[in-house]
């Protein structure tokens, strides 16, 4: 079998694609890079906003056409597969395999069946399963929990991914060992709300550490860098901030979605905190980590959001001074409480507010990044940048960073970089040696210099 996988959505989906892909490989499948080469195409879907849903619809349309000309098995997995909306789409477009986010390990059974296979159950065995580490990569994701016990009124995730189920710490640490043995240096702990780890349905699980203690355990493993995402502000307790500060491997980076700066909107979103409470959490975090890099998620144009409410979001942005933000126009999702109870605002209002917010974010990111000029940052380099004269990577604070190539460094590893230039999205710098001196750059490779640079590089 030649399988091609397409992924939409969040890092959880990327992890799940990797998990299913590794199952397919264990059944003898070849993973191919395009739909044209494949006889099985599996789409990992996202249902959190309308746009990714429409993308899936258009891909399914194309695949139905392709099926008219050649034998092709089409599969759909992930959040949309769990919803009636997705199942209707699957029927309409002749999808053969449907796997909800809790049934991913049914992929084997699905492929053995000659008939249509739809798996929609939530199974615990998913948590015991350890996918092999990604080959040759320094970064990896590690799922520590699935689902969500919150009920934010705009969000479809509690419906698609079900209630929160924490993964047993032994399984997490075993997976961490396989990652470390494969050379992984940065691990991102994943979950819808990682800070609530070990407290499922409001009850602490026996034998499960708190999230702060899990961070300590992972910190003792020898992994160089630890990140985690995502956190609900109400579960971000001060002991987590204190543990982050005390555990050297944990990066000084916090992604704390605020969604809105207006307490009135937050109440309608059922976020369980006010503007003031959120700001108190930020103050706690900064008390323990004064230089923390802060990112957030914001929804503009939630039903009933007035210009005054939106102004409060803008002023909260200034009050916190985020380093970066993921910003979205509210998208009404069938099946969510806000879809049922509130009227959507006109699209023009939402887009106009979104562009004002994006302007603010750019301004802050430019200032924050410019403030890093002259500092030394620890950068995990992945390999060649778009321009092969440069290497790219990211800092502990998740800033994409680009450096010119130097002799002896091929690009995979963690290095010290002095920042000398910054844009709102990218920082630029020079690689340093152990004494903090800039390493000599390789001559730039362009057609004229090519003949010259090859012998120089070898010298
Ligand atoms: N409309 C717009 N954005 C949404 N998000 C979740 N649901 C919606 C929706 N219905 C955003 C939130 C969340 C991020 C993953 O997606 O900001 O934090
Ligand atoms: Fe959705 Fe809220 Fe749960 Fe996040 S915390 S997944 S926004 S319900």
TrEMBL record:
Record's function text: Catalyzes the methylthiolation of N6-(dimethylallyl)adenosine (i(6)A), leading to the formation of 2-methylthio-N6-(dimethylallyl)adenosine (ms(2)i(6)A) at position 37 in tRNAs that read codons beginning with uridine.
Reaction equation(s) it catalyzes: N(6)-dimethylallyladenosine(37) in tRNA + (sulfur carrier)-SH + AH2 + 2 S-adenosyl-L-methionine = 2-methylsulfanyl-N(6)-dimethylallyladenosine(37) in tRNA + (sulfur carrier)-H + 5'-deoxyadenosine + L-methionine + A + S-adenosyl-L-homocysteine + 2 H(+)
Domain MTTase N-terminal: 1-116
Positions annotated to bind [4Fe-4S] cluster 1: 10, 46, 79
InterPro entries recorded: Elp3/MiaA/NifB-like_rSAM, Methylthiotransferase, Methylthiotransferase_CS, Methylthiotransferase_N, Methylthiotransferase_N_sf, MiaB_methiolase, rSAM, rSAM_horseshoe
Protein name: tRNA-2-methylthio-N(6)-dimethylallyladenosine synthase
Family: Belongs to the methylthiotransferase family. MiaB subfamily.
Compartments (UniProt record): Cytoplasm
Gene3D superfamilies per the UniProt record, alphabetical: Methylthiotransferase, N-terminal domain, tm_1862 like domain
NCBIfam families, per database record: miaB-methiolase, MiaB/RimO family radical SAM methylthiotransferase
Cofactor binding note: Binds 2 [4Fe-4S] clusters. One cluster is coordinated with 3 cysteines and an exchangeable S-adenosyl-L-methionine.
Record's subunit section: Monomer.
Residue numbers binding [4Fe-4S] cluster 2: 148, 152, 155
Listed EC numbers: 2.8.4.3
Keyword Transport tagged: no
Molecular functions (GO terms): 4 iron, 4 sulfur cluster binding; metal ion binding; tRNA-2-methylthio-N(6)-dimethylallyladenosine(37) synthase activity
Domain Radical SAM core, residue spans: 134-367
Main location as per UniProt: cytoplasm
Cited CDD domains: Radical_SAM (cd01335)
Listed cofactors: [4Fe-4S] cluster
Alphabetical UniProt keywords: 4Fe-4S, Cytoplasm, Iron, Iron-sulfur, Metal-binding, S-adenosyl-L-methionine, Transferase, tRNA processing
PROSITE patterns, per database record: MTTASE_N, MTTASE_RADICAL, RADICAL_SAM
Cellular-component GO terms for this entry: cytosol
